[in-house]
Amino acid sequence: xxxxxxxxxxxxxxxxxxxxPDDDPESPAIEAAALAIPDQTADQALQKAFWESFNPAKRFxxxxxxxxxxxxxxxxxxxxxxxxxxxxxxxxxxxxxxVRQDSSIMDEQPAKIERRYTDFRELYxxxxxxxxxxxxxINFPSKVLVGNFSAELIAERxxxxxxxxTHVASQPKLRDLDAFLHFLQHEELTKACQYLDERRNEMAIxxxxxxxxxxxxxxxxxxxxxxxxxxxxxxxxxASPVPHHSAEHWALxxxxxxxxxxxxxxxxxxxxxxxxxxxxxxxxGQDQKPITDRLTxxxxxxxxxxxxxxxxxxxxKLDPRTETI
Length: 325
What we know:
This protein is of the alpha+beta class. The protein has 14 helices and 5 strands. Strand 4 and strand 5 form a beta hairpin. The longest helix has 20 residues, at 151-170. It is elongated, with a radius of gyration of 22 Å.
């Protein structure tokens, strides 16, 4: 049914970053893809082939009462790798997942990530092992050996993936598992941390911003995943001698999120965050007193506020990654 609604594979020059190795190892990638794309030179067409569903604006459904609704949609997919140097290289489909919080109007800041079939399958299998009852009514698309590049199959899988993720996000037992968080952010967060390790903060910050938008749509404002990515974003924006132009925006948001925080495990981030914000305010010539007053008040309560742990070091203790600290 979904295949009828989808466009066929068309020539397109997609954006640059995508996942690694193949999706269905046994599939004859080049032959299957050639069946689904317009009549061009096979190699040129394969490099740029993509599938696209309807324009999301035409499919947008406002909520009846104006409340927000979390929506997972796959509106585009393309063949990877894009560059063809060896005809024997096996290729796979990269699915572009869009996550929105729609209400009476469409979410103007959707988050987007790319995942392959094996990513969805690994998540499904992991969740199924831990909570089989919660997934008893979910039909996950099976692996195929031939035709996995057809527009019809891509459309059917895209619809199934969207249904699966919507169900997972609606079930606290599934949503709060590490496997789901890993699926949502691991690839992008690893790349961002590599950029930070190379002191290429300007490359890491947009990735972290997208990660924050994604997690903030799925988890609560003061949840551990959201606050960790938010603090990592503040640290990335303030690590350079000249702060990033968005540093103050993210710092203010982080400070507001930490107000009335009850999660004792995240409190070690708060003092380094306050120090990072105080330094940022000093760099910008702004009044640091509200922040220093907060530190003084905490000190009077017997909390050691004079530690020299940086914000990135504090993050690394809770969620070790590859950054140089």
